[in-house]
Design goal:
512 residues; mainly alpha; Sodium/glucose cotransporter; 20 helices; disordered N terminus
C-alpha cells in the first residue's frame, strides 16, 4: 500500500472528491430548510421511520463497526467481536425500555428528560457534563479513524488530515444542521452496508464460499485460539467489563438517543429502532467475515505495519481483493462513514452546549430564538476545534477500544439516571446528581489509572489497576449511590411529580 506522503492515491482521491461534492450539495439544500433552533438541532422533529432507522444505524456503526471492530477481529480473533456482540444486546434494551419514554419526555437532549422528571438545575449540569464527555470520546474516535484514512487517500500528514476533516465538518454542520446530518447519514449507511457486503462476498469467494474454510485459514496463520472467545486476549475482567459496558452503553449514548427527538411521535421512534436493530445485526455478521478475512489474507503483522491499531484492515483487504480502484472506493466509503457520524456527534454536542448549558443554565430559559441559534453556531466551531485537538493527541489508538471507553462513561452516567428517573417513584434530584457524579468521576479515575493511559499513552512500566474498561465497577457504583442518596433525601413532592409525569405520559402528552 502506498505510504503517506508519497502523493495522493488517485482512485481514492476521486471517490473522496465525489463524496465531498454530494455532501456539499445536500448541505446547501438543507441550509435552505433550516430556519430555527429546532430545525438546526433536531431537524424540526420531522424525520420519517425508514430515514431515522438508517440514520440510527449510521450513527452507531460509524468508525467503530466499519473499521475498529474489523481491525480488532483481524488482530486478535473472535475476542475482538466483544464490543459488537454486547452492542447488539443493547439495542433491544433501548427499544423496549427507553424509546417511548424518552420521546415523550424529551425535546432536544437527555437532560430535558431528566429535568422533566426532577426539575433541578444541578441535574441538567451533570447530565450535560456526562454527555459531553461521551461525545468528546466518540469525536476522538472519529478523528483518529478519519485522520488515518485521509492520510492514506491524499498522502497528507496525519495532522493535516485531521485539520482537513475538522474543516469539512464545520462547513457541513454550520450550514445544514441536523437536516443535512440526517440525509448524509442515510445515504452513507446505504453505501457503507452495500460496500461491506461486497467485500464480505469477495472474501468468501476466495474460500469457495465456505465460512469454515475461511476460519481454518485464519487459524492456520494465527493459531486455533483465534476462533473462540479468549478473555486473556484483552484480560478476563476487561473482557467482562467491555461486554457489560457495550450492552448498557449503547442504550445511553447521547448522539443515538438524540434521534428519538428528530421523529414526530413515539410510534415512529420504536419502528425506526426495529429497522436499525436489524441492519446493525446484519452489518455485524458482515464485519465478522471481513475481520477474519483480513486475518487470513492480509495478516496481523502487515496490518500493524500500516496502522498499529488495526483500523486499516478493511482498506488493506480491499486492495488485496480488488486492486487500487476498489481500495479507493472502500477507503472513501469508510471516510464518508466517519465524517457523517462526526456530524451527528457535533450536533448532539452543540445541542448540549447551546440548549442545556447556555439556554437553560446560563440564561435561565430566557434566551430568544435568534440568540440560541447564534450560540449553537458558535458552539459548533468550538466543538470541531476540540475534536481536532483530540484526534491529533490520540493518533494510532484502536477506535473500537476507544468506543468501549466511551460506552463505559455513558453507561455509568446516563443509564442509571435515565432508568431511575423513568421507572422509580422515589428517585430524587440529589440522588441523580450524586449518581451521575459518582459514575463520571469513577470512570475518569479508573481510566486514568488503567494500562491504556499509564502504559500505552504515558509509557510507564505498569499501572495501578489492570482494568482498561471501567464499566464493571463504575456502573453498579453509580446505581448504588443514586439509590442510597435518593432514599436519604426522599420527599413527598418527588413522588407526586413522578405520578404527574406518569399520568401525562399515559394520556399521550409529549414534553416540549
Amino acid at each position: 500500500m502506498q505510504a503517506a506522503g508519497d502523493g495522493a492515491h488517485n482512485p481514492a482521491a476521486l471517490f473522496f472528491g465525489l463524496f465531498v461534492v454530494v455532501s456539499l450539495a445536500i448541505t446547501w439544500i438543507a441550509a435552505r430548510r433550516t430556519r430555527d433552533t429546532a430545525d438546526f438541532l433536531v431537524a424540526g422533529g420531522r424525520v420519517g421511520t425508514l430515514q431515522n432507522g438508517l440514520a440510527l444505524t449510521g450513527d452507531f456503526l460509524a468508525a467503530t463497526g466499519f473499521l475498529g471492530i474489523s481491525g480488532l477481529i483481524a488482530l486478535i480473533g473472535f475476542s475482538g467481536a466483544t464490543y459488537s456482540i454486547g452492542a447488539m444486546v443493547g439495542w433491544p434494551l433501548m427499544t423496549f425500555l427507553l424509546a417511548e419514554p424518552l420521546r415523550r419526555m424529551g425535546r432536544y437532549t437527555i437532560a430535558d428528560v431528566l429535568m422533566y422528571r426532577l426539575d433541578a438545575p444541578s441535574v441538567r449540569l451533570l447530565s450535560a457534563i456526562g454527555s459531553l464527555a461521551v461525545l468528546l470520546m466518540f469525536s476522538l474516535m472519529s478523528m483518529v479513524g478519519a485522520g488515518a484514512l485521509v492520510r492514506l487517500l491524499l498522502g497528507l500528514s496525519y495532522d493535516a488530515s485531521v485539520w482537513l476533516v475538522g474543516g469539512m465538518m464545520l462547513v457541513y454542520v454550520l450550514l445544514g444542521g441536523m437536516i443535512a446530518t440526517t440525509w448524509v447519514q442515510t445515504i452513507k449507511c446505504v453505501v457503507m452496508m452495500g460496500s461491506a457486503l461486497a467485500l464480505a462476498v469477495m472474501v468468501l469467494a476466495r474460500f469457495g464460499f465456505s465460512p469454515g474454510a475461511l476460519f481454518n485459514a485464519a487459524a492456520a496463520r494465527n493459531g486455533v485460539g483465534v476462533l473462540a472467545p479468549n478473555p486473556n486476549a484483552i484480560g478476563l475482567w476487561d473482557f467482562l467489563s467491555a461486554g457489560i459496558s457495550s450492552v448498557i452503553g449503547v442504550a445511553s449514548l447521547p448522539h443515538v438517543l438524540t434521534r428519538f427527538f428528530t421523529v414526530p411521535d413515539t410510534r415512529t421512534a420504536r419502528q425506526s429502532l426495529v429497522i436499525a436493530t436489524g441492519l446493525i445485526g446484519l452489518n455485524m455478521l458482515i464485519i465478522f467475515i471481513v475481520g477474519f478475512g483480513g486475518m487470513a489474507l492480509v495478516g496481523s503483522a502487515a496490518i500493524r505495519a500500516v496502522e498499529r491499531g488495526g483500523n486499516m484492515t478493511i482498506p488493506l483487504l480491499a486492495q488485496q481483493l480488488g486492486g487500487p480502484w476498489f481500495l479507493g472506493f472502500i477507503a472513501a466509503v469508510a471516510l464518508a462513514t466517519i465524517l457523517a457520524s462526526f456530524c451527528g456527534l457535533v450536533m448532539t454536542g452543540v445541542a448540549t452546549l447551546s440548549h442545556d448549558l447556555w439556554g437553560r443554565l446560563v440564561r435561565g430559559g430566557r434566551a430568544g430564538e435568534r440568540e440560541q441559534y447564534l450560540v449553537a453556531k458558535i458552539c459548533t466551531v468550538g466543538f470541531c476545534l476540540v475534536g481536532v485537538f483530540l484526534g491529533i493527541t490520540f493518533q494510532g489508538q484502536n477506535i473500537a477500544f476507544l468506543s468501549g471507553l466511551a460506552s463505559s462513561i455513558a453507561a455509568s452516567t446516563n443509564f442509571p439516571a435515565l432508568v431511575l428517573a423513568i421507572f422509580w417513584r422515589r428517585f430524587t434530584a440529589a440522588g441523580a446528581v450524586a449518581g451521575m457524579l459518582t459514575g463520571l468521576l469513577a470512570c475518569l479515575l479508573l481510566v486514568w489509572m488503567s494500562p491504556f493511559i499509564q502504559m500505552q499513552m504515558l509509557g510507564h512500566a505498569g499501572a495501578p489497576i489492570g482494568l482498561n474498561t471501567p464499566g464493571l465497577i463504575a456502573i453498579p457504583l453509580a446505581f448504588v449511590v443514586s439509590i442510597v442518596v435518593s432514599l436519604l433525601t426522599a420527599r413527598a413532592s418527588d413522588a407526586a411529580r413522578f405520578d404527574a409525569v406518569e399520568q401525562a405520559m399515559a394520556g399521550g402528552v409529549t414534553h416540549g
